[in-house]
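Appendix B. Chain record.
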Amino acid sequence: MFSDKPIKETEDINIPPHRLAQICRRYENELLQMKDWMFWFLMLWTFVILLMEWSEFLFALAVPHAMQAGYVVLLGGYIAHKEVLRWMGVAPRARKGELFVYIWWGTLLAMFIASYTNKNWNVPESMTCL
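Structure tokens predicted for this chain:
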């Protein structure tokens, strides 16, 4: 359908409008599916690291630093992907990513209240860094 020869700067690309729309819809769907997969993987990682943070809070078990660093990298990738979609004009669905903010701030608040009422518990430094 399309030739393999390179296009010169002065040449026009002749793609029928219906074909171009089809390509754009496919690309948009692929981008949105990737965001959905990233969301669920990040949600799983969030629950695992939250369990580790609570175990450090309650039982003084240390959270591996690699878990925190990996989480920050994954979260940054997820945020960057969402921003690129927004800049491209792809309409975002419900802002599911806000759940991560509520989960972390809610957990931090619960730990602060618990440590305030029980002096044997201290909010882990790793939790305040995250």
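Further analysis of this model is presented in Appendix C.
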